[in-house]
Amino acid sequence: MIEREIFLTAEGLEKIENELDELKTVRRREVAERIKQALAFGDISENSEYDEAKNEQAQMEERIAKLESMLRNAIVIEDDDISVESVSVGSKVTLKDIEFDEEVEYTIVGSAEADPYEGKISNESPVGSALIGGEVGDIVDVQVPDGIVKFEIISIGR
């Protein structure tokens, strides 16, 4: 499997490291204890508690492997690396939706960190990729399922 670079802000890196630490130190122990308790019930061929605990263990180990891979391939974007001249990963961008005359603010992050509900959009998303390289005053066209949305870049920050 080809592993690709993962762009992370310092905040995103910390969040992934904390999740990984929690999974390895706390959750592994909890799941192992559940498996041990389920084994105490005897015959595992019809033991739903055992099956459920083993499935949870497999999902958790898969998540651990994914997080470790992300950290191995992480490119951390430090605040000093973020330009305020043009939009890049890590930029906080204020946009004006030209059609609705509304302002929105997004932080451009790598796909692993994206959370639209927190205003964090991926550099690979339609809006994120359209904004990359843009400068204050630029009007960018974003292809969406309903057509094209036009945004004006109002400000770029860190």
Automatic annotation (TrEMBL):
**PROSITE patterns xrefs:** GREAB_1, GREAB_2
What range(s) does the Transcription elongation factor GreA/GreB C-terminal domain occupy? 85-156
| Coiled-coil region list | 13-73
Protein's recorded name? Transcription elongation factor GreA
Species of origin reads: Gottschalkia acidurici (strain ATCC 7906 / DSM 604 / BCRC 14475 / CIP 104303 / KCTC 5404 / NCIMB 10678 / 9a) (Clostridium acidurici)
UniProt lineage: Bacteria, Bacillati, Bacillota, Tissierellia, Tissierellales
Q: Does the keyword DNA-binding apply?
A: yes
Q: Which family does it belong to?
A: Belongs to the GreA/GreB family.
Q: Which Pfam families match?
A: GreA_GreB (PF01272), GreA_GreB_N (PF03449)
Q: What does this protein do?
A: Necessary for efficient RNA polymerase transcription elongation past template-encoded arresting sites. The arresting sites in DNA have the property of trapping a certain fraction of elongating RNA polymerases that pass through, resulting in locked ternary complexes. Cleavage of the nascent transcript by cleavage factors such as GreA or GreB allows the resumption of elongation from the new 3'terminus. GreA releases sequences of 2 to 3 nucleotides.
Q: Which gene encodes it?
A: greA
